[in-house]
Amino acid sequence: MEVVSKNRSFGGEQAVYRHVSKVCGVDMTFAVYLPLQAKDGSVPCLWYLSGLTCTHDNAMSKAGLQAHAAEFGVAIVLPDTSPRGEGVADDEAYDLGQGAGFYVNATQAPWKPHFQMYDYVVNELRELVQANLPVSDAHGITGHSMGGHGALTIALRNPDRYKSVSAFAPIANPTQSDWGRKQLEAYLGADESSWADYDATILLKEKGWHDDILIDQGASDQFLDLLRPEALAEVITKTRQPSVFRLQEGYDHSYFFVSTFARDHVEWHAKRLYR
Amino acid sequence: MEVVSKNRSFGGEQAVYRHVSKVCGVDMTFAVYLPLQAKDGSVPCLWYLSGLTCTHDNAMSKAGLQAHAAEFGVAIVLPDTSPRGEGVADDEAYDLGQGAGFYVNATQAPWKPHFQMYDYVVNELRELVQANLPVSDAHGITGHSMGGHGALTIALRNPDRYKSVSAFAPIANPTQSDWGRKQLEAYLGADESSWADYDATILLKEKGWHDDILIDQGASDQFLDLLRPEALAEVITKTRQPSVFRLQEGYDHSYFFVSTFARDHVEWHAKRLYR
Predict the structure, then answer these.
(1) B19: CB partners within 8 A, 6+ apart
(2) According to the model, what pLDDT value does residue B222 have?
(3) Could you report the per-residue pLDDT of A164-179, keeping only the tens digit for each?
């Protein structure tokens, strides 16, 4: 891990690292916030997955997570949203290719060689972080928009690896959305049966979750039609999945929404990760 | 005032406006955060002046002020750092011209026609804000780096207009710094006697301040030589100026520093503005 930057923040340390990713076949950049408590031993680890067009930097700079991570004593890991750089496939659209990895393992050309974000987040980056930084085995995961989709699908498929899950305005049902169908076909191929592993609504219906789930969704979100929170709410209701699903009056899809409710999410995870 | 954007944030509203500035002779953009309390009547108003290269957006997105403004019931006004656009003079250097107005009234060509940021902040924008938004007569002012310089010099010259003043890593003594001498000569001319009105260290020595002052400065700030906090500290000490001057171990010049101590500053101002 090469240090890109380190800044003192709320008594702890906000760092950015670059490393060679075997899974993605390219250098990857990620950010980690360590609270002061990490100086005395390992702390639980909350993953925050970002949305379309974002890098590790957006939430690091704009979500205000550090104050809450310092207060509740958890580390925050912020991965990039895709592989990047020369030799990595891309698309002119903002919602496909670089900046839009959708946290899947691509099986189709030209994406397959580098777009392995699911394995990268679940396995490779986690092993790197645990080997090099003072984080414990207690991991939680959250994210915003495409990152909320990533957080939910990754947690639901790996209940042994994550103790807690939440999401901000997640893409809740991508197999039925223009934020999903195009990308899943490009990355996974036309056979829709392979898409189900990357749809939170389908996964929750099939697998359930071992604890409660926190979802915040802005009621004035400009992308409600694409996010399809109603599909996830229906499954939560029908399966009696313990959850707190909050439709927040007046809030849109921006970081002003995320930052407003960031403390609630960090506290939610900390309580479950310290259990 | 034309609305550029509005976003719900911490129960209140983060807005960006554009307006025709007579003083600067060009359209200007600024941001205002109004807490929920402003729905029931006027609230005190804290001005936040930004640093070199910034617009209204940087602190709006990265300083985390909204959470604290919501908690303590104050509005936050974030002006731009200079006039901008075609027909406005500029310089290739990042620290002169657009993005680097230094909160002065320029008297020299080519800057004089538009670079009137002192009058803009003290008079024109204040009148616009008070005429159009629910803010009371109780105003405080703070800022970061060049904006800390702006906050201190503007407050010290207008003690009747500002009840409270603080600064984050201010350019404290620009008449003796490479962050200052070049710009003051460009904007005000070679006669250094005209520069004293824009130097916080000189102004504090001459005028004092009617209340206490809060200054936060990162002890690991990469620009300490340019900021010259020691000059301001010396005047504070010699003149027995009531102050809280904090040298914060390990903190640099970034928004990670500003956001860490933003709550302290907003609380500080709110206590004095609600007095």
Answers:
(1) B1, B2, B27, B28, B30, B128
(2) 98
(3) 999 999 999 999 999 9
Closest-CA residue of A relative to B14 is A256
Phi first, then psi, for residue A189 (nearest 5°) are 100, 175
- Span A174-229, pLDDT tens digits: 999 999 999 999 999 999 999 999 999 999 999 999 999 999 999 999 999 999 99
- All residues at 6 or more sequence positions from B53 whose CB lies less than 8 Å from its CB, including other chains: B81, B94, B99, B100
CA A80 to chain centre: 10
Return the sign of the alpha-carbon dihedral for residues B36, B39, B43, B46: positive
Name the residue in chain A with its Cα closest to that of B64: A64
- Cα B121 from Cα B152, distance rounded (Å): 13
Chain CA centroid to CA B139, Å: 12
Token pair for B220: 């690991």
Helices (H), chain B: 56-62, 65-72, 117-119, 125-132, 146-157, 181-188, 200-207, 224-227, 229-238, 255-273
The pTM of the full predicted model, rounded to 2 decimals, is: 0.96
Beta strand pairing status for A213-218 and A164-168? parallel
Whether residues B14 and A255 touch (CB distance < 8 A) is answered with: no
State the Cα–Cα distance between residues A161 and A123, nearest whole angstrom.
10
Q: What is the mean pLDDT of chain B?
A: 98
- Judging contacts by C-beta atoms under 8 Å, the chain B residues touching residue A57 are none
The angle, 0 to 180 degrees and rounded to 10, between the axes of the packed helices A200-207 and A229-238 is 10
